Amino acid sequence: MRFVSVGNLNLDVNAFLSEHPRVGENAIAEGLWVGAGGAAANYAVMLASLGRSVSLVSLVSPLAVRAGLLQRLVEAGVDVSYVRVIEGEPNVALIITAKRELSRTVISYRGVSRQLRGDMVPSGDHLHFASVRPSLVLEAARRAPLSSYDPGGESFKDPRGVAEAVSEVSWVFLNERECKAVARDPSELLRGRSEMVIVKRGPRGALLVSADSRLEASAPSLGEPVDVTGTGDAFDAVFNAVFLKTRDPELSLRAASVAGALKSTRLGSSNMPSREELAKAFKDIYGEELEL
Ligand SMILES: Nc1ncnc2c1ncn2[C@@H]1O[C@H](COP(=O)(O)OP(=O)(O)OP(=O)(O)O)[C@@H](O)[C@H]1O
Ligand SMILES: [Mg+2]
Fold first, then answer.
1. Nearest CA-CA partner of 67 in 6, 107, 5, 12
2. Residue (of 40, 193, 68) closest to 128 by Cα position
3. What total number of domains does the chain contain?
4. Does residue 24 sit within a domain?
């Protein structure tokens, strides 16, 4: 089974402070993480860490090579043969994480990744679109029998476009704020090909809505959360891996929630938990073996 992840590979610069700086303040960070990020890249690293075969589809500038981002993905086991290096501006995310309330401010700069087009997406068994514009989903979703879309911030930029694109994918992932921006109720997004809507609720877990069920999973507490960047991407990847193996939505939702919670305890956007850590945490919480 081949997974394809479409979207950004960024250089993430995450500064950790005890609280958010005030306007005009010259703040000193207490911690710093610099490395590979971007929703599609984080998702691909999580799948590779579960031993899945996954290809990343992204456009990057030469800075991604110089900064070792591509190398990092290769080492993680991600196929980067569909990542094109083109001359132009880098894709960068500047993140401020305030440790006290674990809130985040993200400033994303879309460089060459803005030029990503649907015809650059290969076919696969499952396509995942991570934080890409809805028109790209409309162009490429039919290249695979199964697909998912996590629009992220696109939900605020183009809520109507996102609502339209959702009908072209098999299931959609949104966090609570994004979901409110796109629909009054998640069930409104069950249309066209869309069979499931999965709503991520941070420390309050997750909700799955389909035509015949409404399931909830809690977010387990697995240690102190230190970095919530990438929690949603870890969640999406584990949901997809478990669902495509078992077709069990409840098990997939639980496993994904454990993955998100585990990621939150790890520093670094693409610093994903291992298969063994995930299986162990799942067993500790639910008393059952999780086949990954
Ligand atoms: N502080 C936390 N404590 C425990 N679990 C968490 C925490 N934050 C996130 N999670 C887990 O990770 C999942 C996904 O996180 P979240 O709801 O923040 O998604 P998101 O907003 O899409 O994240 P992202 O910022 O990566 O896009 C949650 O459903 C939950 O299971
Ligand atoms: Mg998200």
1. 12
2. 40
3. 1
4. no
In this structure, which amino acid lies at residue 191? R
Secondary structure letter of residue 266 according to DSSP:
S
Tell me the residues surrounding ligand 2 (ion) with CB < 5 Å.
Answer: 152, 232
- Whether residue 99 lies inside any domain: the answer is no
Atom in ligand 1 nearest the alpha carbon of residue 263: 12
Residue 12 near ligand 1, beta carbon < 6 Å? no
Instruction: Provide the whole-model pTM.
Output: 0.97
Q: How far is CA 31 from the centre of its chain?
A: 23
CATH number of 228's domain: 3.40.1190.20
How does the average pLDDT of the chain come out, rounded? 97
* 285 within ligand 1 shell (Cβ under 6 A): no
206 within 8 A of 189, measured Cβ to Cβ: no
- pLDDT tens column, 170-227: 999 999 999 999 999 999 999 999 999 999 999 999 999 999 999 999 999 898 999 9
The answer to whether residue 81 is domain-embedded is: yes
**Residue bearing tokens 């030029």:** 115
Q: Is residue 261 part of a domain?
A: yes
Nearest residue by C-alpha to atom 14 in ligand 1: 232
Residue of minimum CA distance from atom 18 in ligand 1 = 202
Residue whose CB lies within 8 A of the most ligand 1 atoms, among 95, 235, 242, 278, for a mutation test: 235
Could you say which ligand is closest to the alpha carbon of residue 207?
A: 1
Strand order through the sheet with 10-17:
31-37, 10-17, 92-98, 103-109
Range of the domain at 262: 2-8+38-89+114-286
Given a cut of 90, whether residue 115 has pLDDT beyond it is yes
CA 52 → CA 10, 103, 106, 148, 248, distances in Å?
22, 32, 29, 17, 18
Euclidean distance between CA atoms 25 and 28, whole angstroms: 9
